[in-house]
Design a protein that fits this description.
219 residues, 5-stranded parallel sheet, 8 strands, binds adenosine monophosphate, 3-stranded antiparallel sheet, alpha/beta
Length: 219
């Protein structure tokens, strides 16, 4: 079982790559963004508070996010290995994760930083949407379904756009990334766990590099 973190700004492809790794290696995708959106949709107190913060493009409090991850890591399905997608996003969260993993007798195998150029991220994110049925990702320009409005993967005809995938919110999210999350590359570099991958290129080629890292870690 391999546990890894995908680091990178919004739009770098963390979710896409996590989904691909789930398929190829059977690992579990733990996306704090997804867990927070689910909490917001359920209307829990933490979910309601988080919703406003997310729609403004800011980071949800460390306390809420760490509590959510702590609960999720108590589910037995994490035993297959976890891809942390969108967590940690601050040094406080990274330190909390170290402690959580230690308490739960789990180990972090490696960290990948998906390296991209900011300028491309706004365009990538503003055009993206997903299938409401299976979650497959699409883009207005770069990846439209073969048959208009029908998911290539599952045939679903309903699609979703995230409320925070608009140009203004994306700029806020990028700023939050540079201020709060980018120091994590140094944090994990110092621990000897960091791998950098150029994530501007072909999705499949990036996926192949990630598969290799997982293979290497599970030897
Ligand atoms: P994502 O789906 O990873 O792009 O996350 C969407 C939004 O959820 C972010 O812009 C934040 O508002 C919030 N969020 C997700 N993960 C975290 C985290 N680890 N720490 C703080 N806020 C988060």
């Amino acid at each position: 079982m391999t546990n890894l973190i995908l680091l990178g700004p919004p739009g770098a492809g963390k979710g896409t790559q996590a989904r691909m790794l789930t398929e190829s290696k059977g690992l579990l995708q733990l996306s704090t963004g997804d867990l927070l959106r689910e909490a917001a949709a359920r209307g829990t107190q933490a979910g309601k508070a988080a919703k406003q913060v997310m729609e403004a493009g800011n980071l949800v409090s460390d306390e809420i996010v760490i509590a959510i991850v702590n609960d999720r890591l108590d589910q037995p399905d994490v035993a297959v290995g976890v891809i942390f997608d969108g967590f940690p996003r601050t040094v406080v969260q990274a330190e909390a994760l170290d402690k959580l993993l230690k308490d739960k007798v789990m180990k972090l195998d490696f960290v990948v930083s998906l390296e991209v150029q900011d300028a491309a991220m706004i365009e990538r994110i503003s055009g993206r949407y997903t299938c409401a049925g299976c979650g497959e990702g699409y883009h207005d320009i770069h990846k439209v379904p073969a048959k208009p409005n029908v998911c290539d993967n599952c045939g679903e005809t309903e699609f979703r756009r995230r409320a925070d995938d608009n140009a203004e919110t994306v700029s806020e999210r990028l700023m939050a990334y540079h201020a709060e999350t980018s120091p994590l590359t140094a944090y994990y570099h110092d621990k000897g766990l960091l791998n950098r991958i150029d994530a501007m290129g072909d999705i499949g080629a990036i996926g192949a590099q990630l598969n290799e890292l997982v293979d290497e870690a599970s030897k």
